[in-house]
Specification:
With 428 residues, the chain is of the alpha/beta class. It has 2 domains: 278 residues, Zn peptidases (Aminopeptidase); 129 residues, Aminopeptidase i, Domain 2, CATH 2.30.250.10. The chain is built from 9 helices and 20 strands. It has a 9-stranded mixed beta sheet with strand order 1-2-3-13-4-14-18-16-17, sandwiched between helices. A 6-stranded antiparallel beta sheet has the order 8-7-10-5-6-9, sandwiched between helices. Strands 11-12-20-19-15 form a 5-stranded mixed beta sheet. Helix 1 crosses helix 9 and helix 7 packs across helix 9. The longest helix has 15 residues. It starts with a helix and ends with a helix.
Length: 428
């Protein structure tokens, strides 16, 4: 009944960092017959071609060039999501020795629910950059320890009697992962020693790294009928997988693009984020490679349509008062169309109508989400990306509980609905 969830959980397991997400996506696209393009090379594209390109290792774009004129209205169709997730990144010179314990110096990445990370088995994944053939050509290696490695222990209730009355956690003091217990041979280089052994390179050759702490325990189905899913990184691997499945199964007409950006959780304003020039550059390169003029490219863009795909807040059974009085999306009732008068979610009436019409044609369940008027929520990359590439855009996603927790909860059936609407767009 929930076949899409098996694929989702397997993808999540393989994607403990944005760089691994991109590599897992690339493997999936290669298996489906897509051709990889180097972002720094010149491109010679062909009609009915299927392509993808990586951006700085943590973003990836894939596209299919179909038959017909790319200047016609609705010939350009896009879906965008993000590869990153809230948590912790390891700082440089991260080893701390304190009273014989080895701790890692970390900093927060995005808006994580801090207490949800306590007392869990955690691991480390990301990239390590080592000395290469010359200074301007270092060697980058993806690393995933894929085993319980560190934990962030909480303070016992006996030492903090008011712990259950709420606590403000200090990221620099309270949230440092415990990695080791040392004897007399203390060394602050224990992290580099660990990386050197795992990567198979000399410690002195490791020049830099970007490493995530991530929850080691895999996702699973739960609920009496297996109708729920508990997993890390539902925000936003649910959307990544739906975009990938949509582009792989896309039709043969028009130009279909998925853009999987990094750094949404910290504002998108990076060279690999949705606020970069990358998506506009990609579209221009496709049109010019196919022999279109810039004027014709803008015809295609102005008649285009984009889905910004990110998770939404589902109705919480213990906190129903946190939800809008009339727009109350439930788990397993369909994906969510998100709207906000502030345009923190990209939308307009026509875009919403187009998604609803597509759902009605294909019998896909969908719901609507609006924040409570006295409780503004977060934002997505939709408004940012559509300001740079001015196509009609609407924000959608699966409703979840405990967004930004170390483990989030969703309805298994909603992933199928999300996959189906993106398939529907790309097959239209």
């Amino acid at each position: 009944m929930y076949g899409d969830i098996i694929d989702l959980l397997e993808f999540i397991k393989k994607s403990p960092s944005p760089w691994h997400t991109v590599q897992t996506a690339a493997d999936m696209l290669l298996e489906a017959g897509f051709q990889e393009l180097d972002w720094t090379d010149g491109w010679q594209l062909q009609q009915e071609g299927r392509y993808f390109t990586k951006i700085y290792g943590s973003s990836i774009f894939a596209f299919t060039v179909g038959k017909g004129q790319l200047t016609e209205k609705n010939s350009l169709r896009l879906a965008a999501a993000h590869t990153d997730f809230p948590g912790f990144r390891i700082k440089p010179e991260a080893g701390i020795i304190k009273d014989g314990y080895g701790l890692l110096n970390t900093e927060g990445y995005g808006g994580a629910i801090l207490y949800s990370w306590l007392d869990r088995p955690l691991s480390i994944a990301g990239k390590v950059v080592a000395r290469g053939k010359d200074a301007l050509t270092p060697e980058t290696m993806l690393l995933d320890f894929a085993r319980p490695l560190v934990t962030i222990p909480s303070l016992a209730i006996h030492m903090d009697k008011k712990i259950n009355e709420g606590k403000a956690f200090n990221k620099q003091k309270d949230m440092l992962p415990l990695a080791a217990v040392f004897g007399k041979e203390d060394t602050k280089s224990f992290l580099l020693d660990l990386l050197s052994a795992e990567a198979g390179v000399a410690k002195e050759d490791i020049l830099s790294y970007e490493l995530n702490i991530y929850p080691y325990e895999p996702g699973c189905q739960l609920g009496i009928a297996g109708e729920l899913v508990s997993s890390p990184r539902l925000d936003n691997i649910t959307s990544v997988v739906a975009c990938l499945q949509g582009i792989i199964e896309s039709g043969t007409d028009g130009l279909n693009i998925i853009a999987l950006f990094d750094n949404e959780e910290i504002g998108s304003r990076t060279k690999q984020g949705a606020a970069s020039a990358n998506l506009m550059q990609l579209i221009e390169r496709i049109y010019t490679s196919m022999g279109y003029t810039r004027e014709q490219m803008w015809q295609g863009i102005n008649g285009g349509f984009m889905l910004s795909v990110d998770v939404a807040h589902g109705l919480h059974p213990n906190y129903p008062d946190k939800t809008d009085p009339t727009n109350r999306p439930m788990l397993n009732k369909g994906f969510v169309i998100k709207q906000a008068a502030s345009q923190s979610y990209a939308c307009d009436a026509e875009a919403v109508a187009m998604v609803k019409g597509l759902c009605q044609e294909r019998d896909i369940p969908c719901q609507q989400y609006v924040n409570r008027s006295d409780m503004p929520g977060g934002a997505t990359l939709g408004s940012i990306a559509s300001a740079l590439v001015p196509v009609r855009t609407v924000d959608i996603g699966v409703p979840i509980l405990a967004m930004h927790s170390a483990r989030e909860t969703m309805g298994a059936a909603d992933q199928t609905a999300l996959c189906n609407v993106i398939r529907g767009l790309f097959q239209y």
